[in-house]
Amino acid sequence: MRSREKPNSISVVAPCFNEAEGIPELLKRLTAVLKDLSNQYEIILIDDGSTDQTWSVIKESRSLYPQLKGIKLSRNFGHQLALTSGLDQAKGEVVLIIDADLQDPPELLPEMLDKWRQGYDVVYGQRSVRQGEPKLKKLFAYGFYRILSRIAKIEVPRDTGDFRLIDRRALDALNSLRERHRFVRGMVSWVGFKQCPIFYERPPRFAGETKYPFKKSLKLAFDAITSFSYMPLRAASFLGVWVSIFAFFYIAVVIVLKFLGINFPGYTSIMASILLLGGVQLIVLGILGEYVGRIFEQGQNRPLYIISEIEGEPLSQKNKSNQ
Q1: What beta strand segments (E) does the chain contain?
Q2: Which of 93, 198, 212, 278 is deepest in the core (most CB within 10 A)?
Q3: pLDDT per residue over 141-154, tens digit each?
Q4: Predicted confidence (pLDDT) per residue in 90-137, tens digit
């Protein structure tokens, strides 16, 4: 069993989308922390198809930070796939996932490493306070994690993001999962190993605007639910059963009223029945379509992302193989 007194090397992975303003401060704070923690480290910044000067800032920063590695994707693939590209490239013995907006404080890395030395393979940041976020987003996040914990087959820690420290063996297991619709924090929970939280107050963004508006958050939530649970399909089945029971009951009532000689004009009831059944059928077909669409996309076997350009290689492949 290898020693965990001090990691041989550390990789930091941060996806970036229009984060040109905050990158200099991110690199400054990361370097200030990392230089005292390991003799070898790398900072991997992934430009996920930014429309501002993010890639230019990354390339220019390499003259000041030789430990920086820049990855430019060919287009915007989304946060989770951009993160995946960085994790595939990371060569450190331990890997820190962090957001480029500095809402995940780099200064928590020493505390995470203390937990790693105690034998934990994954140390995730759990938010006790979320500063600078709209109440609607906080409410949505609160409800999402509690719903997911009830319907998913795995236990995803509540009130967490992707901010976490991952040991090499857990990362290798995570990188072996190549599904397209990714919910990385759920996938980390799925691979198992020994995991624990550290609690922190999440500060507001250092610069710029959030890159995860409500629409993207909703899509990520749906990907999470469909990736780790078939409960929507089961719910659709139950909905169909109860509507069928109601329909048969209604037919029986109509027949009885007919024999009793009670006859009501039928336009309203017929239209109500048609609309109800039609709506239920469309809902069920929509849920089925989401799962079938995911099967179709996975079956195409396209690469998860395409790298356009790479700048720098702070940690060599030899460093990785010697761990």
Answers
A1: 9-16, 40-47, 68-73, 94-97, 122-130, 160-167, 195-202, 307-311
A2: 93
A3: 666 666 666 666 66
A4: 888 899 999 888 888 888 888 888 888 888 899 988 877 655 555 666
